[in-house]
């Protein structure tokens, strides 16, 4: 019998619900995974998450060593402390994985995300959108008489705050890259 129970009346029907019935706190962790850059590796890593019901909040992948044929997968995931430890252990056992770092616990790190926001509006809403974009240091990368496309870079919290302010001003669409992160220092 599973130790995880679904609350009665809960909107979630997953047997893999990560809410801990014993009140254990959910944590968000940023994992950096160095893998072979070959076909099917990303599918295997993502399969580990989906097969066990782990959620991925953000995912970025790019080749970081062309000569060594290595890519870096940055995953932001949420779970209880034991679940996060289990994820790291299971990732470390995958054959194409060379290294797994939990940037959340290994010390200070830098996280950034790029986002594009399409905002439609005229008159005062248009002026207010431009004023807020200036405050957030967002760049206008496209403009028509009816809309703007803003480009913004920052922490996920900054991106979320900008989105919240743009919604009432005519936010039409959002594209986000996901988190890219590196440990600080040497």
Automatic annotation (TrEMBL):
In terms of Gene3D superfamilies, this protein maps to: 3.30.70.260, ACT-like. Chain A, domain 2 (3.30.70.1150)
* GO cellular component annotations of the record: cytosol
Give the reaction(s) catalysed: 2 pyruvate + H(+) = (2S)-2-acetolactate + CO2
One Pfam family this chain carries? ACT_AHAS_ss
Q: Which UniProt keywords apply?
A: Amino-acid biosynthesis, Branched-chain amino acid biosynthesis, Transferase
Q: What is its EC number?
A: 2.2.1.6
PANTHER family of this UniProt entry?
ACETOLACTATE SYNTHASE SMALL SUBUNIT (PTHR30239), ACETOLACTATE SYNTHASE SMALL SUBUNIT 1, CHLOROPLASTIC (PTHR30239:SF0)
Q: What does this protein do?
A: Catalyzes the conversion of 2 pyruvate molecules into acetolactate in the first common step of the biosynthetic pathway of the branched-amino acids such as leucine, isoleucine, and valine.
- What family does the database annotate? Belongs to the acetolactate synthase small subunit family.
Name of the molecule in the record: Acetolactate synthase small subunit
Taxon lineage: Bacteria, Pseudomonadati, Pseudomonadota, Alphaproteobacteria, Rhodobacterales
The gene coding this protein: ilvH
């Amino acid at each position: 019998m599973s130790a995880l129970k679904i609350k009665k009346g809960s909107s979630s029907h997953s047997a893999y619900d990560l809410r801990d019935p014993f009140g254990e706190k959910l944590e968000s962790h940023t994992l950096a995974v160095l893998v072979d850059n070959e076909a099917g590796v990303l599918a295997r890593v993502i399969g580990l998450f989906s097969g066990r019901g782990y959620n991925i909040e953000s995912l970025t992948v790019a080749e970081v060593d062309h000569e060594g044929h290595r890519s870096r997968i940055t995953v932001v995931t949420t779970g209880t402390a034991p679940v996060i430890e289990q994820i790291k252990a299971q990732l470390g056992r995958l054959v194409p994985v060379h290294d797994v770092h939990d940037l959340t616990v290994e010390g200070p790190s830098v996280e950034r995300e790029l986002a594009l926001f399409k905002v439609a509006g005229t008159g005062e809403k248009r002026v207010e959108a431009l004023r807020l974009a200036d405050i957030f240091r967002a760049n206008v990368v496209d403009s028509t008489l009816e809309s703007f496309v803003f480009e913004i870079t920052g922490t996920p919290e900054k991106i979320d705050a900008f989105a919240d302010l743009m919604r009432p001003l005519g936010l039409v669409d959002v594209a986000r890259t996901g988190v890219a992160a590196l440990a600080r220092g040497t």
